[in-house]
Specification:
CATH topology of one domain: pyruvate-formate lyase- activating enzyme
Shape: globular
Number of strands: 21
Largest sheet: 10 strands, mixed
Radius of gyration: 26 Å
Helix content: 25-40%
Structural class: alpha/beta
Distance between the termini: 24 Å
CATH architecture of one domain: Alpha-Beta Horseshoe
């Protein structure tokens, strides 16, 4: 894989003489106290500013400060006019804009598209402190405030919208966020490397319009530059017969049909098509070897995806484009992707080179004060309360779960911190964080147990195009040694003043069972009575569409968990998480899950309906009804989608079969499914035939107490997204 200079190797900007700020300023008065006449960079965020490395704005701000720049923060501004965006004056280099740690639409709306009354990233959880599609709104206000200042967008909201994408909340395909926001450049993923290089190049006087080849960035361009060759995406992964890509730069042969309907521009000379399914410039993992004499340089090839107009009109092409984006996600072999939007192309450069352990340590070791900005006073910020005693030990995930956005944002290659850096942070929490009682709430990240797991061969890793390293089975090239994580746990709990180290991140149990020693360590010392894991479902259909392991790994892990709990003399329970209404799930699948829950005496409190997030493969399934996990064709696999409001309510009701409010809907469904044998008051029945007074949609048939209801043993995730640990 290509190497890159250390992000801390740049010569520091001249403003380093001002030193380190106690907190990054949010007002002109704070700037005056620091002796600043201006900010070099102003960061705009939809979150409250918390000076902690789990919050992207603080991490980015402190990193830029370490490069010598003066950085100010505008947090949750009033977006109705540009005035709030002038609070710190005109930045010398650029505005950096993010919606915050969460996508603003996921933050503001439930899975049923109902607006939330609270916001975990706001003081006192106050709602309505950020707009819908915050990146677009903030960017436009920055442009109105100072028209000549470059605008750089990033964070998870921008990252997941870098190409044309399905938007669940409007139920339509929207353009890339780059032209809609009118920003100059989009930085996607964990953007430290790209952001640092961009800042230094702008500081040296380069024009942002000339910075087009930065890894991990997307820009708008017209045409393909000289020296590059174009590859039609349909020759890389053939979706079946499609209309040729229109060339927006060629002269239009006809602009209107006789009836006045607009026509797409046509190519005077359409590009030649390769054989079905062939890649003319294959990577080693696709069957190709070294570049032969006379062949174009693969690194100078750009893959042209179907245009925004095409994917909006054609679900097959949408699924095809989504699949190609995921196949071109490995920093070791990814090529440039281009997608036409009107008269311009969105040019998406390959993903950034992952940070080394030394670099990641440097990022997390910056001088955070680990608290909310003093301007918030005594206000409680729920997201901070959740993570203030936790430590992020790694980033990235090679699981590839189709409903999750971690892979699309952080990548599949695990980036690890060193033991020393992690232990030092635990010491910082112990010594500096108010209210610490000796308990660390989590050592984890996107998953609990991928720390220091990696491909056994760097050459294979650089060439790989698999969508997951653990599905359908764990790749034979993927290391599963949990030894480094076990050693970290032991050293962490041996630190003076540390009473308990809990693991709050979800355990990937199919990996954990490869190391019974790890399961023993985890169960014996790091479970506080309950441990969360995420089977997500038990039926083969939805599990295959989620790219999740079968239940065999769950039962093996459960056996080890219970065995080691007994040996430790502890009464502990697993908390399984499940998703309802996921693409590929039928009513019969949900009935099977409900019966499994009843048999195992699980009574879920709050449950999660599938929420399609931009760019996720499951979202492509939801929108198109096609399966992008395989080559997408006109006659390709169709996926059952529980999309209607009734289907989504029913699937959610199956997870809460014990709630009387759901019994009328479940009885109706069981009758339609021919399963009236499950209606009754026996232990083998799912729901009773009678209805308690004041519940459900029908009058009560009886007031007698409910029978056959086991003991509550678990509480499921809330019907809202989990708080993201850090997403820049």
């Amino acid at each position: 894989m290509e190497t890159a200079p250390n992000i801390f190797s740049h010569r520091k900007y001249w403003a380093k003489r001002f030193g380190t700020a106690p907190v990054l300023p949010m007002s002109r008065a704070e700037m005056d106290r620091l002796g600043w006449d201006s900010c070099d960079i102003v960061l705009v965020t939809g979150d409250a500013y918390i000076d902690h490395p789990s919050f992207g704005m603080a991490l980015v701000g402190r990193l830029l400060e370490a490069q010598g720049f003066r950085v100010g923060v505008i947090s949750q501004p009033d977006w109705h006019s540009p005035e709030a965006f002038k609070a710190l004056g005109k930045p010398n280099l650029f505005f950096g804009v993010t919606a915050g740690n969460m996508d603003s639409m996921v933050n503001r709306y439930t899975a049923d598209r109902k607006i939330r009354s609270d916001d975990a990233y706001t003081p006192n959880a106050e709602g309505n402190k950020r707009p819908d599609r915050a990146v677009i709104v903030y960017s436009q206000r920055c442009r109105e405030a100072y028209a000549d200042v470059p605008v750089v967008i990033g964070g998870i909201e921008a990252s997941l919208r870098r190409i044309a994408h399905y938007d669940y909340w409007s139920d339509k395909v929207r353009r890339s966020i780059l032209p809609d926001s009118k920003a100059d450049i989009l930085l996607y993923g964990n953007a430290e490397r790209a952001l640092v290089e961009l800042a230094h190049r702008l500081a040296k006087g380069e024009k942002i319009s000339g910075i087009t080849g930065l890894r991990g960035s997307a820009v708008l361009r017209k045409g393909i530059p000289e020296g590059w060759h174009e590859i039609d995406s349909t020759s890389v992964d053939t979706p079946g017969k499609v209309a040729p890509h229109p060339n927006p730069y060629a002269e239009t042969v006809a602009s209107r049909s006789p009836d006045g309907t607009a026509l797409s521009p046509t190519l005077p000379n359409p590009p030649p098509q390769a054989g079905a399914g062939a890649d003319p410039f294959p990577s080693p993992a696709c069957g190709g070897g070294a570049r032969g004499e006379g062949k174009p340089d693969r690194t100078q090839g750009v893959i042209r995806l179907p245009s925004f107009e095409q994917v909006r009109a054609d679900p097959v092409l949408y699924a095809h484009a989504n699949r190609l984006l995921h196949l071109e996600a490995n920093p070791g072999n990814a090529r440039v992707l281009v997608q036409n939007h009107g008269d311009r192309d969105v040019w998406i450069n390959p993903p950034p080179i992952p940070l080394s352990t030394e670099e990641l340590d440097g990022v997390f070791d910056l001088p955070y004060n680990r608290r909310p900005h003093p301007a918030y006073g005594e206000a409680k910020i729920p997201a901070y309360e959740m993570i203030r005693f936790s430590v992020n030990i790694m980033r990235g995930c090679f699981g590839g779960c189709t409903f999750c956005s971690i892979t699309e944002h952080e990548g599949r290659i695990i980036q690890n911190r060193s033991e020393t850096s992690i232990l030092n942070e635990i010491g910082e929490i112990r010594d500096k964080t108010p209210g610490f009682t000796g308990i660390i709430s989590d050592l984890g990240g996107p998953t609990a147990n991928m720390y220091r797991l990696h491909c056994k061969d760097p050459k294979i890793e650089s060439a790989c195009r698999r969508l997951s390293c653990v599905f359908p089975d764990i790749c034979e090239n993927m290391g599963t040694d949990h030894g480094p994580l076990i050693r970290l746990y032991r050293k962490a709990r041996a630190l003076p003043g540390i009473k308990k180290i809990l693991i709050g991140s979800g355990v990937r149990y199919d990996l954990a069972v490869k190391s019974p020693e790890y399961v023993r360590e985890l169960v014996s010392h790091h479970v506080g009575g309950y441990l969360k894991i995420a089977p997500e479902h038990i039926a083969e259909g939805p599990l295959a569409k989620m790219m999740k392991p079968g239940m065999g790994a769950y039962y093996k892990f459960k056996e080890l968990f219970e065995k080691f709990s007994r040996e430790a003399g502890k009464e502990q329970y697993l908390i399984p998480y499940f998703i309802s209404a996921h693409p590929g799930t039928t009513d019969e699948d949900m009935l099977e899950l409900a019966l499994w829950l009843k048999t195992n005496n699980f009574r879920l409190d709050q449950v999660q309906n599938f929420t399609p997030t931009p760019m996720a493969m499951a979202s492509a399934m939801y929108h198109t009804g096609r399966n992008p996990l395989r080559k997408v064709g006109r006659k390709g696999e169709e996926v059952p989608i529980p999309k209607s409001g009734r289907a989504r309510r029913l699937h959610k009701a199956f997870l809460r079969y014990h709630d009387p409010e759901n019994w009328p809907l479940l009885r109706e469904a069981l009758k339609q499914m021919g399963r009236t044998d499950l209606i009754g008051s026996g232990k083998k029945h799912l729901v009773p035939a009678w209805q308690p007074a004041g519940t459900g949609r029908t009058p009560a048939n009886s007031r007698r107490p409910e029978t056959g209801r086991g003991t509550a043993r678990t509480q499921h995730t809330q019907d809202r997204p989990k708080i993201t640990r850090r997403a820049k």
